[in-house]
Amino acid sequence: MDDIRTNIEKALEEIRPFLQSDGGDIELISIDKNDTSVKVRLQGACVGCSVNQMTLKSGVEMTIKKYAPQIEEVINIE
User: Fold this and answer.
1) What pTM was estimated for this model as a whole?
2) Least C-beta-crowded within 10 Å: which of 18, 26, 56, 63?
3) What's the number of domains the chain is made of?
4) Full residue range of the structural domain in which residue 26 is found
């Protein structure tokens, strides 16, 4: 579990500068017990952004899967 958490944090660190440049950020909330689903919380300007679901799927989820291929989905918790 620690390795997957470390890899997911690395993925978030990679994507964070892009979110912060638009006034947003992201926080890791949890990883499910099967290590297939990750819950995150978009913050700042990302919360009300009209393209946040696209950012979540094409940016965040893709980056997390690069670091942790066993992850099947990333869910935004508001």
Assistant:
1) 0.89
2) 18
3) 1
4) 2-76
